[in-house]
Design a protein that fits this description.
Elements lengths: L5 E8 L54 E2 L4 E7 L10 E10 L6 H4 L5 E8 L7 E5 L11 H5 L10 H9 L4 H15 L4 H11 L8 E8 L3 H7 L4
Parallel strand pairs: 1-6, 3-5
Antiparallel strand pairs: 1-7, 2-3, 3-6, 4-5, 4-7
Helix pairs in contact: 3-4, 4-5
């Protein structure tokens, strides 16, 4: 259980753009930036100079940066944050409270009581100082969209909120129907993209499709399981 944390909340997005921490100038000295990938998900490795697909270049977010379950009560992932200029590579423990930031009696948020995430900051953007925008495929493209070109589809759900929000609106915010709808959308859009499918499924299984869950957060040492994916060390 987290002790001495700060109140915060979580949202979700996946815009397919090269992350801000993929640039050498944005990461702390002594660490490699986050790798980026081609449109076919082939890593550029130590070539950190490829322009982002969201700026007309060939570099996309690699598809293995979605969240995953470590146990029934612990998951790892990555996020965009607003934690000052020196944020790349910092990790945060997120302890979910069971409440939602913007919905009363949200079943998905309630199911997160006792669950924890540890996320590494690899991006920034238009988020609040206490907000963690979790990288979740199908979570909405937000302000930018390189996914339509990479995935070859415009079926991306709501711009902010992705598959689940579109399903909520289509099902009059019925939780069970919306969750099932989002799970079906994961299967449909990511049937041939196993990394994206696994982390999209994570949203409706381990995470239980919450509506912007409230949390307590605190900076922690990054686990090896996270840094082995990102290559980003503080």
């Amino acid at each position: 259980m987290l002790v001495g944390g700060t109140n915060g909340w979580a949202t979700r997005y996946w815009d397919c753009c090269k992350p801000a921490c993929g640039w050498t100038g944005n990461v702390p000295g002594g660490s490699n930036p986050v790798p980026s990938c081609s449109s076919s998900n082939q890593s550029y490795g130590s070539d950190y100079n490829e322009q982002s697909a969201c700026s007309g270049g060939p570099a996309y977010m690699c598809q293995n940066f979605g969240p995953w379950a470590v146990s029934d009560t612990l998951a790892y992932g990555f996020a965009a944050v607003n934690q000052g200029s020196d944020y790349c590579g910092r990790c945060y423990q997120l302890q979910f409270t069971g409440a939602s930031h913007n919905a009363n009696n949200d079943a998905g948020s309630q199911s997160l009581v006792g669950k924890t995430m540890i996320v590494q900051a690899i991006n920034n953007g238009g988020v609040d100082a206490n907000q963690f925008d979790l990288l979740i495929p199908g979570g909405g493209v937000g302000d930018f969209n390189a996914c339509s070109s990479q995935w070859g589809t415009s079926d991306l759900g709501a711009q902010y909120g992705g598959f689940f929000l579109a399903c909520q609106m289509a099902n009059d915010y019925d939780y069970a129907k919306s969750k099932a709808c989002a799970a079906a959308k994961c299967q449909s859009i990511f049937a041939t993209k196993p990394d994206l499918l696994a982390s999209c499924n994570w949203f409706t299984t381990w995470f239980d499709a919450p509506d912007n869950p409230a949390l307590m957060y605190k900076e922690v040492t990054c686990p090896a399981g996270i840094t082995s994916v990102s290559g980003l060390h503080r």
